[in-house]
Design brief:
The structure holds two protein chains of two kinds. By secondary structure, chain A is α/β, with parallel strands linked by helices. Chain A has two domains: 134 residues, Aspartate Aminotransferase, domain 1 (Alpha-Beta Complex), CATH 3.90.1150.10; 225 residues, Aspartate Aminotransferase, domain 2. Chain A is built from 15 helices and twelve strands. In chain A, α2 packs parallel to α9 and α5 runs parallel beside α6. In chain B, the strands form three sheets. Chain B has a seven-stranded mixed sheet, sandwiched between helices. In chain B, α4 links the parallel β3 and β4. The chains are: A alpha/beta, B alpha/beta. Chains A and B meet through α1, α2, α3, α4 and α9 of A and α2, α3, α4, α7 and β11 of B.
Chain lengths: 371, 412
């Protein structure tokens, strides 16, 4: 591996924060089953409880509302099954772990900037009196576009609906306040905010209904069976505490530079409020795969979409939902930085993008002039 | 590998709860480390070297797990642990084949997550037969044969019991299941890496494995799913379609690598470790039996993993004993349910009387247990059992030859 690789794929996974690493190494050495009653077990229990407070604090929840899971996917699955509502409405840009968990769901569209159509949500909710669950993500994983959660909650409440929010990409990057907004179920993944992979959480508001979907020992106060992933949970807690948000300085500088190099490049969702770390940009006429490979050879790691499906060659469902034509969507790459990104990383990105553009994007310049 | 005996600090209690969880083997931690730090990529990222390296780590681990159980690496699915594996195996097949079959066979001594899953399926309309066990904890094969019908979709019998350590006759069970065309699932959380397992020779179709029971990390497990003849499952967790669609979610690379390494170490050292633990187990038992009358081993001693003893100390209250032996980390049952004071359902299933079930301790020996620790534990146990018995009127009466059971207690 090139030692000097620049990692700009934090929305796929973020490297472990040193705070998390240190806490985990200690926990791995301590060991113990948090459910055992002897001293070793009780010590492990104490570590889990501390992490529960740290995670709760990051998203404005109470410690008792935190259910640790194996990650964001499990949390999303658990919420959609656990709310016990047959009628579910989801946005057209939800993560696959939401979409596939509720294949019958009613889909609420987004506009051209990738923002949920609130009027459509209101209309759809009014169609039937059956109590519903509305699932809208806090921030989209590809575009980084923030969704109007407070409005979603207001509209949902009026219709007697519960609200689930996949905050996997948002937590730790922007403020998330479960009780402030009034969200009933909130999904989190540790590795997106600098914690380890293999751990996440579903926050269930104290007064929200919840039916567990995994059976066994009575862990997590009977809401999620299985021996706790001790080191993972401890790492999650430490990372959650350390993840106090990102600012958009690096992103803004990079975006401005890329657009200056390639004037026809389009930043998707640029007109909406976005996460401070995400740029989803097209280099018209150059397939995303070509860009990703060329940038990788130049030591800059980005992706052509979400990691879960980035192995497969298909167009982004998110961009399709925003009404972006296939030709343009096919040339979109996602650049996402994180807690350890530096100014020099952005310089490397800009240089690599410029070199690529000069090499293969010439026809694009010609096209632009001809147009 | 001299360092591995230094796992315990002197101020820590002696750890004798290896069936609850095992310490991470330092060699496993070492293998995991790079994947926490510079090789941190998402194994599903295909567009850069960080992703490829992580994927390589995951796939190597998959091969290591497969080898431990005689499987093909394509048949191993990573999960968050044995509880999830058990849920997925049983619910997955039950739901997939529900149009044709509606019956499940399991045993009364299974882990709680198997029993709870079965109860959930009963509520969904499935029929479940809970086979009793014999006094020694083993199932009666003829009873199994009689229970399996052409409506039976899966037979779920644990390989090794988590409380009493007894080993079920897997090959014989597998043979019956194959004959009767029912899938055979085994919860091998306590067995993998401790006894030889071979999914081919034993005709096992689904097998659950846990990381933290074999000196690997918590938060990771595996499910073996046979490909020939193919076993199909409805996934419990859907999303990005990872793990051949059976289990979505970003794979935790360091944890997968840890499980793989733990599996390989367990395989390489299984024989030597079994011999060593057999000696320690005998030393522990003899030490106690020589010095304490009226103690009873629960479960078969012969068909048992060497790392387990489950002993009832008559005339002693289990909780008081637990409180007394603060220097020993042991348990009075399984960790998952040990916070409750109910007597063990496993011991009750063997026909152990309630009083005797209440006086039982599960003693787990493992890779880092030393002879000195065993001797210290024996001393400690003998001292506290004697002390508690001295205070017990029942013990006094028993010493005087009174049959306790014949006493008619006055109501108050």
């Amino acid at each position: 591996m090139p030692a000097a690789s620049v990692y700009l794929d934090h929305n796929a996974t973020s490297p472990l924060r040193p705070e998390a690493f240190d806490a985990m190494v200690k926990a791995l050495a301590t060991g113990g089953n948090p459910s055992a009653v002897h001293a070793v077990g009780r010590k492990a229990r104490g570590l889990v409880d501390k992490a529960r407070r740290q995670v709760a604090a990051r998203v404005g929840a109470l410690p008792a509302e935190v259910i640790f899971t194996s990650g964001g996917t499990e949390a999303n699955n658990m919420a959609l099954a656990g709310a016990g509502r047959r009628r579910v409405l989801i946005s057209s840009i939800e993560h696959e772990s939401v979409q596939r968990a509720v294949p019958e769901a009613d889909i609420v569209p987004v506009d051209g900037e990738g923002v949920l159509d609130l009027a459509a949500l209101e209309r759809k909710l009014a169609v039937s009196g059956e109590p519903a669950l509305v699932s809208v993500m806090f921030a989209n994983n590809e575009t980084g576009v923030l969704q109007p959660m407070a409005d979603v909650v207001r509209i949902a409440r009026k219709a007697g609906a519960l609200v689930h929010c996949d905050a996997v990409q948002a937590a730790g990057k922007v403020p998330v306040d479960l009780h402030g907004i009034g969200i009933d179920y909130l999904s989190l993944a540790a590795h997106k905010l600098g914690g380890p992979t293999g751990v996440g959480a579903l926050i269930v508001r104290a007064d929200a209904p919840f039916v567990p979907s995994r059976f066994g020992g009575g862990q997590e106060t009977n809401r999620r069976a299985g021996t706790e992933n001790l080191s993972g949970i401890v790492g999650f807690g430490a990372a959650a505490e350390a993840a106090r948000g990102l600012d958009s300085t690096l992103r803004d500088r990079g975006e401005a530079a890329l657009r200056a190099i390639a004037p026809t490049a389009r930043v998707f969702g640029a007109g909406a409020k976005r996460l401070p770390n995400t740029t989803y940009i097209s280099m018209p006429g150059v397939p995303a795969e070509t860009q990703v490979m060329a940038l990788d050879l130049a030591g800059v790691c980005v992706s052509a979409g979400s990691a879960c499906s980035s192995g497969k060659v298909h167009r982004s469902a998110v961009l399709a939902a925003m009404g972006i034509e296939d030709a343009e969507a096919g040339s979109a790459i996602r650049i996402s930085f994180g807690w350890n990104s530096q100014s020099g990383d952005i310089d490397r990105l800009i240089a690599a993008w410029r070199d690529l553009y000069i090499r293969v994007g010439k026809s694009d310049i010609a096209n632009a002039r001809a147009a | 590998m001299t360092a591995i005996t230094q796992i315990r600090r002197n101020d820590q209690p002696i750890y004798l709860d290896y069936q609850a969880t095992t310490p991470l083997d330092p060699r496993v931690l070492e293998a995991m480390m790079p994947y926490f730090t510079h090789q941190f990529g998402n194994p599903h990222s295909r567009s850069h070297s960080y992703g490829w390296e992580a994927e390589e780590g995951v796939e190597k681990a998959r091969g290591q797990v497969a080898k431990l159980i005689g499987a093909d690496e394509k048949e191993v699915i990573f999960t968050s642990g044995a509880t999830e594996s058990n849920n997925l195996a049983i619910r997955g097949v039950a739901e997939f084949y529900k149009d044709r079959k509606n019956h499940i066979v399991t045993t009364v001594t299974e882990h709680k997550c198997v029993l709870d899953t079965c109860r959930h399926l009963e509520q969904q309309g499935f029929e479940v037969t809970y086979l009793p066990v014999q006094k020694n904890g083993l199932i009666d094969l003829e009873a199994l044969r009689a229970a399996v019908t052409d409506k039976t979709v899966v037979v779920s019998v644990m390989a090794v019991n988590n409380e009493i350590g007894v080993i079920q006759p897997l090959a014989e069970i597998g043979k019956i299941c194959r004959e009767k065309k029912a899938f055979f699932h085994t919860d091998a959380a306590q067995a993998a890496g401790k006894i030889a397992l071979d999914v081919e020779a034993m005709n096992i179709d689904l097998m659950s494995i846990s990381g933290h029971k074999i000196y690997g990390p918590k938060g990771i497990g595996a499910l073996y799913v046979r490909r020939k003849p193919r076993v199909r499952l409805v996934p419990l967790i859907v999303g990005g379609g990872q793990e051949r669609g059976f289990r979505s979610g970003t794979l935790p690379t360091p944890l997968c690598v840890g499980l793989g390494e733990a599996a390989e170490i367990a395989m390489n050292e299984m024989e030597g470790e079994a011999k060593r633990l057999t000696k320690l187990q005998a030393r522990m038992l003899k030490g106690l039996q020589n010095r304490l009358p009226e103690i009873f081993v629960n479960g078969d001693l012969e068909h048992r993993i060497p790392g387990n003893l489950n002993i009832s100390f008559a005339y002693v209250e289990g909780e008081s004993l637990m409180m007394g032996i603060k220097n020993l980390a042991v348990s009075s049952g399984s960790a998952c349910t040990s916070a409750s004071l109910e007597p063990s359902y496993v011991l009750r299933a063997l026909g152990v009387e309630e009083e005797m079930a209440h006086t039982s301790l599960r003693i787990g020996l493992g890779r880092f247990t030393t002879e000195h620790e065993v001797d210290t534990a024996v001393d400690e146990l003998v001292r506290h059992v004697n002390k508690l018995r001295e205070m017990s009127p029942l013990w006094e009466m028993a010493q005087e030859g009174i049959d306790i059971k014949s006493i008619e207690w006055a109501a108050h």
